[in-house]
Design a protein that fits this description.
7 helices; Nucleotidyltransferase, domain 5; alpha/beta; about 210 residues; 5 strands
């Protein structure tokens, strides 16, 4: 979150405020800190100035400070929330609704052309690999807004890639739970933070004569 780029559009600003607002109850004076940014959401009011920059910096600092992020309790189960967008993946490690850690990764090369299902699976594998010491030997939940992933363990394996995914998840005790996209705002915002930097220049297709 400290590396979140300065919003250059309303969409990007809404994404950042949606991410931080999800945890506003854990941040002292969240409304006061974020006020200069929320005012930019008004019609024809998006103008990035020094006050907005100071609020943006202060809000990132507040979100990453000790009172916000909880310490892991190994007597309780962990929850992973995952999401993938066209250009990135984002995941959150949680316990009882409180965030323990965030991570996101920009997609590049051949990964940009993967299907939504494959990108969502990449998000899960990234989370499990990142937080392996927390998860191994404990039962945990994986929440995703891609409904078909809920049946990952029940699907017939039809490709080498699926076999590889299953092999990486062996040894873990987990349950995949479907969570609607509108309720998965944090992971969704993390996965989309790179979209503003991407530009689609052209699409070429054959046109039959």
């Amino acid at each position: 979150m400290q590396e979140w780029p300065q919003p250059k559009t309303l969409k990007s600003l809404r994404g950042f405020l949606g991410l931080t607002g999800y945890y506003r109850k854990f941040v002292c004076n969240y409304g006061r800190i974020a006020k200069p940014l929320t005012q930019l959401l008004k019609k024809n009011s998006f103008f990035w100035n020094e006050e907005a920059q100071q609020a943006f910096t202060a809000l990132k600092t507040a979100m990453c400070s000790t009172p916000v992020l909880a310490l892991p309790d190994f007597t309780k189960s962990f929850v992973i929330e995952c999401d993938a967008s066209g250009t990135g993946i984002g995941v959150v490690l949680m316990q009882e609704g409180r965030p323990l850690a965030f991570t996101s990764q920009q997609l590049s090369g051949k990964n940009l052309g993967q299907s939504t299902y494959e990108k969502e699976m990449m998000a899960i594998l990234h989370a499990v690999e990142t937080w392996r010491p927390y998860l191994l030997g404990r039962c945990f939940q994986i929440r995703t807004d891609h409904h078909s992933l809920k049946y990952f363990l029940e699907q017939r394996l039809s490709s080498p890639k699926q076999n590889k995914w299953l092999a990486k998840m062996l040894g873990y005790d987990y349950e995949i739970i479907y969570k609607k996209g509108k309720d998965n705002r944090v992971a969704d915002a993390l996965s989309r933070q790179f979209e503003e930097e991407s530009t689609l220049l052209a699409i070429s297709l054959p046109i039959p004569d």
